[in-house]
Every structure is written in structure tokens, then in C-alpha cells.
Amino acid sequence: MGLASVGSRMREDIASARLRDPAARSSLEIALLYPGMHAIWAHRVWHALWVRGLRFPARAGSQLTRWLTGIEIHPGARIGRRFFIDHGMGVVVGETAEVGDDVMLYHGVTLGGRQREGGKRHPTLADGVAVGAGAKILGPITIGAGCVVGANAVVTKDAPPDSVLVGVPAKARVRRAGEDTRALLTAPEYSI
Questions:
Q1: What is the pTM of this model?
Q2: C-alpha angle with apex 190: 185 to 192, nearest 5 degrees?
């Protein structure tokens, strides 16, 4: 990726944050003060090292980023475009996790594993998924495009596209036409 495309991706990330965070006041504020942005930008560097076989430096860099931001993204995780982590403290994204485009996570979210065997151990989040604070999505499962995972939900099974997942263990229901993602994530009936 050339320097021009790196700058373009960073501007795209900042625009995505402005779109999703009503508290964002300026692009400069986002670029300098949002730990979710810093974690994502650093992850791109560490992931590039990881895929080139430079595993130790990639892991060391990801741990430095974790220490600085409170967000742990394994350098092996595959992250799509316009990924936004709001607040971010306590977010964990495992090694074999895959995150699609336009995904949003709030603080305390875990994309974790449930088994010790090798291979795919972490979830896949399709495009446009939003995950509420404290939610845990565990194992090699797939969360379909456009899903909303409620705060503190524990998801251990696949979810079809355009579902709302709430509870422990989470149960899925189809999103109703016109349901706004932000409204779903802040409605008291969708948190535990």
C-alpha cells in the first residue's frame, strides 16, 4: 500500500468515526485523541509484518499498542475497512477473527475463542455489524451482515444477516424494517 493510499484509508477511517460518533467535534480530535483509531492504524502495521512472517515483531508491536490504548487486536486478525471502535478500553480481537467492512464495536467487546485446537478459533463478523458494550462473541462462528449484538450479550452460535442478538446465551431475532442500529444499541431492553 503506497503512502497516498495509506493517507486515503486514514481519512476514510476518520470520516467513518465522524459519522458514527455524535461526540466527534473534528477530524483533528479523532486523529489525535481516539484510541480506537490508533489501535486500528497500528494493527495495519503489525498485520503487514505478521503476513510477511515477522511474527515476533508483530506480536511485540501489538502488545505495545495494547499497553498504549487498552485495545488488544492480535496481528493475525483480518480487519476490513472503516472499522470503528468507540471508547475501546477492554476490546479484545483474537488471532483468527475476521471483521468485515463498516463494523463498529463498543468498549469491553471480546471476539474470542472457545477451544484450544489450532485452526479457525475466533468469530467472523460480516459487513455492517454493530456490537454493544461488553458483548462476547466466542468461537468460530459467523455473525451475518447488518446484525446488531446487544450490550453484554454472549454469542456462541451463528447468526443470520440482519438479526438482533441479545441475552446470555444470545438469541437472535430478525431486525424489523426501519430499526436504527444506534437506537437498538442504546435501548434498555437490549442490554442485560
A1: 0.89
A2: 115
Nearest alpha carbon to residue 172 among 139, 137, 148, 188: 148
The C-alpha atoms of residue 76 and residue 62 are separated, in whole angstroms, by 10
- In angstroms and rounded to an integer, the radius of gyration of the C-alpha atoms of the chain is 16
Question: Which among 142, 138, 111, 139 is positioned nearest to 126, based on CA atoms?
Answer: 142
Domain that holds residue 11: 3-190
- Which of 24, 31, 9, 162 is CA-nearest to residue 81? 9
Number of domains in the chain: 1
Cα separation, 34 vs 50, in Å, equals 24
Report the CATH number at residue 121: 2.160.10.10
pLDDT, tens digit only, all 192 positions of the chain: 666 688 889 999 999 999 888 899 999 999 999 999 999 999 999 999 999 999 999 999 999 999 999 999 999 999 999 999 998 899 999 999 999 999 999 999 999 998 888 899 999 999 999 999 999 999 999 999 999 999 999 999 999 999 999 999 989 888 877 777 666 666 655 554
